[in-house]
Amino acid sequence: MQTLDYKRSHTCGELRALHASKTVSLSGWVHKRRDLGAIIFIDLRDRYGITQLVFNPDQDVALHKLASTLRSEYVISISGTVIEREVKNSKMETGDIEIQISDLQILSEAKTPPFLINEDEPGIQEALKLKYRFLDLRRHSLQQNFILRHKAMLAARNYMDRQHFLEITTPILGKSTPEGARDYLVPSRIYPGSFYALPQSPQIFKQLLMVGGMDRYFQFATCFRDEDLRSDRQPEFMQIDIEMSFGKREDIMKTAEGVCKTIFSSCKNIELPESFPVMTHLDAMEFYGTDRPDLRFDMRLIRVDSIAERSEFAVFKDQLKQDGCVKAMCVKGGSEFSRKEIDKLTAFVSDFGLRGLGWMKCGPDGLNANIAKFFSPELLSELQAAVDAKDGDLVLFAAAQESIVNQALDHLRRHIAKEQKLIEENALCFTWVVDFPLFAWDKNENRITSEHHPFTTPHPEDLAHLKTDPLKVRSLAYDLVLNGYEIAGGSQRIHDSDLQHQIFDLLQLSQNDIEEKFGFFVDALQYGTPPHLGIAFGFDRIMMIVCETDNIRDVIAFPKTIKASDLMSEAPSKVAPSQLSDLAIKTLE
Amino acid sequence: MQTLDYKRSHTCGELRALHASKTVSLSGWVHKRRDLGAIIFIDLRDRYGITQLVFNPDQDVALHKLASTLRSEYVISISGTVIEREVKNSKMETGDIEIQISDLQILSEAKTPPFLINEDEPGIQEALKLKYRFLDLRRHSLQQNFILRHKAMLAARNYMDRQHFLEITTPILGKSTPEGARDYLVPSRIYPGSFYALPQSPQIFKQLLMVGGMDRYFQFATCFRDEDLRSDRQPEFMQIDIEMSFGKREDIMKTAEGVCKTIFSSCKNIELPESFPVMTHLDAMEFYGTDRPDLRFDMRLIRVDSIAERSEFAVFKDQLKQDGCVKAMCVKGGSEFSRKEIDKLTAFVSDFGLRGLGWMKCGPDGLNANIAKFFSPELLSELQAAVDAKDGDLVLFAAAQESIVNQALDHLRRHIAKEQKLIEENALCFTWVVDFPLFAWDKNENRITSEHHPFTTPHPEDLAHLKTDPLKVRSLAYDLVLNGYEIAGGSQRIHDSDLQHQIFDLLQLSQNDIEEKFGFFVDALQYGTPPHLGIAFGFDRIMMIVCETDNIRDVIAFPKTIKASDLMSEAPSKVAPSQLSDLAIKTLE
Lengths: 589, 589
Hints:
The structure is a homodimer of 589-residue chains.
Chain A: E1 23-36, E2 39-46, E3 49-55, H1 61-67, E4 75-84, E5 97-108, H2 126-131, H3 133-136, H4 140-162, E6 166-167, E7 185-187, E8 195-197, H5 203-211, E9 216-224, E10 236-245, H6 249-268, E11 278-280, H7 281-288, E12 301-303, H8 305-309, H9 314-321, E13 325-331, H10 339-350, E14 358-363, E15 366-368, H11 377-387, E16 394-400, H12 402-419, E17 430-434, E18 439-442, E19 447-450, H13 465-468, E20 477-482, E21 485-492, H14 497-506, H15 511-518, H16 520-524, E22 532-538, H17 539-546, H18 577-582, E23 585-587
Parallel strand pairs in A: 3-5, 6-9, 11-17
Antiparallel strand pairs in A: 1-2, 1-4, 2-3, 4-5, 7-8, 9-10, 10-22, 12-13, 13-16, 14-15, 14-16, 17-20, 18-19, 20-21, 21-22
């Protein structure tokens, strides 16, 4: 039996040359054992680092013998003297020293792990690592991610506190609403046949907190969506959820910028700019083909409708006649692309519904090759100026319905940037995208629907169009985009009951529909609702960027697979029949 | 339509005489309107306080007219000049000033609320307040509770960070385990017939984080229990969950004391003592009859078996013969109790299975009355000394099986203290209760069971008794008690695989049982588990004490009723048949 007296005097990441000749005690895991001649070296690992232990049989035969029984991942506790190394290891933070051991206790033995706890271990299947997550968590880089995640949460909380926001916890056992994604349901035992729903977001609760006069709220909120997962989604995810009363868009933007600045400053020592650039939704779509433009590289889309119109190129002119558009993109240095490479790009865009790509190359004498022959020399000059093509560039063209052109060129733009390594590593390009459309057209139902949600305020300048041309009405919704990812989104909410009903009317919602969809909430808004607005950050996504990983499972301690299962605990699982009968439900075959 | 330009220069709690003659703008709710002659006074309220506005028709007729339309809970925005009042109101923080209004905007009207937003409003049914929680949240005292809750969470987080604990989020969608209370279940859509369970605590995950080398973990964790609720319980509740590796009981105690100290210091400006007293479980049961003694008053239980044995009182002697015990309690000044009052106490204890109370009164000449006649003068002197009775005191006696005596006298002790107002207001009496028994005897199953859970370490001094007398074995489990409430509990966990199997054997768990009950977890512990230990605070309970309320709903923003329903959103509720068929479940009639 072990004594419980295994206090550490230091951690395994702490000792330096200045500690030489000190007596210390350390505890941790056997990372590696090397037997060099008679001497045994142990790399001892804990969350804080690795320290080298030395067992010399000339000094203590019994200890040396005990050390020879140590295997990978045993947990041990040692005492010893810090010795400055003759040959220092500059790659290790503790590489200036080693410990001459005077006492060794084996605290806990270990079965042979199914994989080595090593960053460079190649080819381990992710499923195996998830099954043994408790071992994978011992990896240095994963541990660093959770240290960063902790730091980010704490720094953001302290920042929000300084801005007088209160963190208020909202319920997990909520009510199912017919809007939005699919809910996770929880059968009620006390009310057989009734169900709670896990929240997709605390949206209604945070607005009610504003109605309740809490003034400024935030929460690191766990949210749930029972959707078929993409690789970067999890069934439960974390939002930094924020709402404030009596503020303007600028106020919430400043708050959100502060959250970003404090996270990057505390986690990465990076000072972000005082404020982030703002782009309208219209411009984002026009110049990048997407509402989440990646601004780490340029390569904008340029509309060349008026030039194409005057060309002889039937493909372009036909599209323009059918209300389509023609956009071009100038790939710097792209004139070296072979015909085969360009064919690959054409194949790439076909996945996004674009039938083909036109192209021209820019030589010392201007644009030529491929579709250049359909353009007069004057038009070619005009085109070259419009797309700012220089000798050695490649100009690509897409002609189709605008939504297809945008989608295809957005993907193509990012694809080429990645392939051509145009993306500056470590760049952090934030941008606000504002003035989203208030409504979208639902082709299936042949009516307008809310782009965001029906409580989003119309842009004050567009109120006059509400009745005449609702699809032209912009909203006071905004997204924050970082490196091409939407990391936050929000809006000014409607606090005026007349305006709210005007919107409901436009959405063709009857009083019954409203009650069914939004229940008490619409009534609650009539008891004195302050102007209020908010935003919600996808915190896991931010942490992926902070931790420089593409795998969301690297920033969640116990993640689920793309099939929403936990391979370690084997959740979900069968339960006892009595559990189901308590809940008055049964499963279908 | 309102303009969105309603920035506030100040809050409603901020202005003082020093701001006199400044132009300011405020926004908030109309708390009260008083028409005094021609002048209209408005109390404007926000989260930060109340400021008095003055509308004088002599200054602006139109504004005055608009002000006359204001009703309770309208949301308005004003501009005006700060005026030092001639007659100051010392009861209001802003009572030195008022605002002479130059501009008024009605931002949002309000239906007549179902109750006034007023602390002193009597007799409003709790159900009505819960239905209109968004209005009740406007009450000053509720808002203060959430400000305190926010402060407590932030202060505790910063404290834990300084101690190098990482906050790590564990899953909400977990696995149902057959141990413990009833789980809330979540049907899986992807795996029909399988279920997730909401966590009753993150116990297994936090131990796995230790196995994973995270060293020090904490989390403000939402936990769930589908139990029939008591008035101070909620189906979802918050724990401050803590676990550390390579520590001793003293380390976790110090950490927990630090959490308490930081919460009371940040919320209440109260400096708690450097460390809290420690009492063994044996002493707690002996002297207070409970493992959560309320130490705000004395009145200990005193065992008088040996004196009772020598008396002529058959009732006592019979109980002693049947392995019962006799305990006494001295009520200071209690000799004034009438026979009727003592009869009421006897009725009170009968609820706890105690058939009667013996009593003696202490006069200037010592103990007398009631059962004194059964005791010789020498025994009476011995008894008086044992219970430290003085002239004017009442001594109460209970004789029965020890568990009944303890339960009855524990309740009686607290009952009398409350009735006699022996409890010092604002007293905060913390105590650790340590060395809980490792096992309990399960009469139904005729075998020993774990008192805490089977991963709790036995007390090292008692290891020898494990096989011979397991019920005598103490554990390294500990509770933190405040004013008679258990506010935290935890234990040193077993990290030694041999010892773990010894415990499983004692609990008569077969390999199959172990796998079924604990699954992968027992296997996980075999891959190099550090010694580790932890504690979990009932955070809602702590906040009840901080906020000085007996109602748990006062410290939870959107609480549920004792029947686990949300009266505001009407959760749980019926859901669409398609939602159930997606999940491959059906409800039973």
